[in-house]
Amino acid sequence: MRHILDIDDLDAGELGEVLRRASDPNLTAKLTGSGVALVFEKPSARTRNSMEMAVHQLGGHPVYIQGDEVGFDKRETVEDVTRTLACYYDLLCARVFSHSVVERMAALHKAPVVNLLSDRAHPMQALADVLTLKAEFGELVGRTVTYIGDANNVTRSLALATHMLGARTRVAHPQGYGFDDRDLAVLAKAGVEIEFFNDPVAAASGADALYTDVWTSMGQEAETQQRLSDFAGWTINAELMAHAADDAIFLHCLPAHEGEECTREVLEAANSRVWPQATNRMHAARGLLHWLVDEVAT
Ligand code: CP
Ligand code: NVA
User: Which member of 253, 262, 273, 277 is catalytic?
Assistant: First the structure.
C-alpha cells in the first residue's frame, strides 16, 4: 500500500509519471464507484476545492469532513477514526496540525493516505508548484528556484520536488526561521542540497523563480507579532524581483498576506504565476489520485 505523506514518498520516475498524468486531458475515470474522504483540521480554499473537483473528474465521490466532526484523539483515537473511514472510502486524505497524525493513519495500512498539509509537509502543493515551473521552463535541470521567507511545510515539499527534477534550490530566511533538525534530516536523506542565504537579495540574484509563503502558518497564530517583527525587510517586492533573472516568475502557494511576505504589485505583475499555480492544484491532484489508484491495484 502506498501513502503520500510528502513528495519523497514518490521516486523521481513516479513523480514524472504523476506530472505526466496531471497534464493528460483524457484520464480514465479511475475512481468510478469510489469514495474519497477529505478530512480538514484547518481551513482551506485551494486544497479542499481542487481535491473535490479532481475526485469528481475521476468519477469518484469526495466527502468533506471537518476535523472536529471526527475529532482525532478527542472523540476517538486517530487509529479508530482511520479504521472507520477505511470501511467506506478507498482513499483517505487529511489536512492536520501534527504530521504524526497522517503518519499514524498511514501506519495502519487500511487505505492509502494522502497528506493535504501538515506542520511538516504540503506535497499536493509541491506537485502543483513543479507542474507550474515545468509549464514555464520545460526541464528544470539548471534552473534555480529561490524560496524566501519562513522555511516551513511548503518549503520542505518544494525543495524535495525541485531537487527530484534537477533544479538548484535556494532558501533564504531570517535567523531562527530555518528548517529544524528533523526536516534537515529528511532533506539530507533525500539527497537534497540546498543553498541557504540570510540575505534575500543574494538569494534572489539570477534566480529563475522567486517563491514565498506566509510568515505565520496555520497553528502559529500566537507568534504573529513576533514574526512580523522578525521578518521585517523580507517582503518580496518589485525591487527584489528585479534581482532575479530577466524571465523570472513569481510563485506563492496562497493565501497571500499582502504587504507581509509579498506586495500586491508582485502578485499582480505580468510575471506572477500564482493563478496558474492555483489552477494546477486541481490538475496535480487528478494526476496523483489517478496514479495512486493504479498503485493500489497492483
Ligand atoms: N495553498 C493551499 O494549500 O491553499 P489552501 O490552504 O487554501 O488549501
Ligand atoms: N505554510 C502555510 C501554507 C498554507 C497553504 C500554512 O501551513 O498555513
Answer: 253
Nearest-CA residue for ligand 2 atom 1 is 217
Which pLDDT value is given to residue 297?
85
Alpha-carbon span 248 to 245, nearest angstrom: 5
Say whether both 260 and 291 belong to one domain: no
What's the start-to-end Cα distance of the chain, in Å?
9
Residue from 38, 39, 40, 44 whose mutation best tests the ligand 1 pocket (most atoms within 8 A of CB): 44
Query: Is 55 part of a structural domain of the chain?
Result: yes
- Alpha carbons 277 and 284: distance in angstroms, whole number: 10
Residue 22 sits in a domain whose CATH number is 3.40.50.1370
Mean pLDDT of the chain: 98
Give 64's strand partners: 38
Q: Is 87 a catalytic residue?
A: no
Number of domains in the chain: 2
pTM confidence score: 0.98
Helix (H) or strand (E) holding 201: helix 200-204
